[in-house]
Amino acid sequence: MAWIYLLLAGLTEIAWAIGLKHTQGWTRLWPSVFTASLMVISFSLLSQALKTLPIGTGYAVWTGIGAVGTAIIGIVFFDEPRTVVRLICIACILVGIIGLKISSPTS
């Protein structure tokens, strides 16, 4: 169950990271409320996952899911650069997430 919490925490991290773009520096009320709510949900889910997962694994996977997901959404929806180096770096993060999952004592 911890890995499900962690996956959901990572997905909500992607959502709040994208939400930050829409808050325009926290100057727009409803995007800011929605983004702050997603942050609370993400941290709560992460906290639940860390009850049983090692902190280093949980935090690294959480931030990795957020980084990879946000970078991919940036490429697809916000026309951010699709350079080979950038895609290789995203792939490296993904490999790291998979490696941490495989090597986790609670996998």
TrEMBL record:
InterPro entries: EmrE-like, Small_drug/metabolite_transptr, Small_multidrug_res
GO terms of molecular function: transmembrane transporter activity
GO cellular component: plasma membrane
One BP annotation, GO: xenobiotic detoxification by transmembrane export across the plasma membrane
Topology relative to the membrane: Multi-pass membrane protein
Hydrolase in keyword set: no
Record's keyword annotation contains Cell membrane: yes
SUPFAM superfamilies: Multidrug resistance efflux transporter EmrE (SSF103481)
Subcellular location: Cell membrane
Membrane-spanning intervals of the chain: 27-47, 59-78, 84-102
Keyword list, A-Z: Cell membrane, Membrane, Transmembrane, Transmembrane helix, Transport
Family (UniProt): Belongs to the drug/metabolite transporter (DMT) superfamily. Small multidrug resistance (SMR) (TC 2.A.7.1) family. Gdx/SugE subfamily.
Protein name: Guanidinium exporter
